[in-house]
Specification:
With 227 residues, this protein is an alpha/beta fold. It has helices spanning 11-14, 19-33, 54-67, 84-87, 96-100, 106-109, 130-134, 137-147, 165-170, 187-199, 214-226, and strands at residues 42-46, 72-76, 111-112, 118-121, 152-156, 175-181, 204-210. Keywords: ATP-binding, Kinase, Nucleotide-binding, Transferase, Tyrosine-protein kinase.
């Protein structure tokens, strides 16, 4: 039985009627409408720097997909500083790195969360060569196999301005969501990340503005999606 998840961060699960939870559902809907004819199956959520809120965003977005009846998998590819297992109150003893190192099958590493339809493939032990194993044939093979079992797969990646791992995963996925922190993330940092993603032919779906005050949050988010 999964342990209690973080009620402070998983607002879409513990307070689904809140304005912030509705914002995450709006994000989900806009992602879906961005590619109606060819539904997006694999998405990465990244940010320029640590602390921008990417992990909280990917977890809440995943919950909204599961609440819609989808079979959803979150994969923690932040191999240097994994945290999804803590947010979801699950184990990190076995995970993605064990699968990529051929130490276990992914079916044994995936964990069920407290949210119906939502599963986690945690990071696992930190490897000595994160970039190399993420860029391996095994990683691409794993993604292909997971797509056969899940409706949508969300990848939590390291900060894209600091570590190139995000670019590796972005090149293998259908789209990218960039999370920036209002009043903290520098514009030139966000622009640099967008340029790097374009260089690997990643599809930028949009930018989530995080950490705005309550009075401004909904307005800022709506303005973004009218562009």
């Amino acid at each position: 039985m999964p342990r209690q998840m973080s009620d402070r961060k998983l607002i879409t699960y513990y307070n689904p009627e809140s304005p912030i939870a509705e914002t995450y559902r709006t994000l989900r809907t806009n992602i879906q409408f961005s590619s109606i004819d060819n539904p997006l199956r694999t998405l990465i959520v990244t940010s320029p720097n640590s602390g921008d809120g990417k992990t909280t965003t990917v977890a809440n977005l995943a919950v909204t997909y599961a609440q819609e009846g989808k079979r959803v998998l979150i994969v923690d590819t932040d191999l240097r500083k994994p945290s999804l297992h803590q947010l979801l109150s699950l184990s990190n003893l076995t995970g993605l790195t064990n699968v990529l190192m051929n130490e276990t099958e992914w079916q044994q590493a995936v964990q069920e969360t407290s949210v119906s339809g939502l599963f986690l493939l945690s990071c696992g032990p930190t490897p000595p060569n994160p970039s190399e194993i993420l860029n391996s044939r095994k990683m691409q093979q794993l993604i292909d196999e997971l797509k056969e079992q899940y409706d949508i797969i969300l990848f939590d990646t390291p900060p894209a301005l600091i570590i190139s791992d995000s670019l590796i995963i972005a090149s293998k996925c259908d789209g990218v969501i960039l999370v920036v922190s209002g009043g903290v993330t520098k514009r030139q940092h966000a622009e640099k990340v967008c340029a790097s993603l374009a260089h690997v032919n990643a599809r930028m779906l949009g930018v989530v503005l995080n950490n705005k005050n309550k009075r401004e949050r909904k307005k800022e988010y709506a303005v973004y999606f009218r562009k």
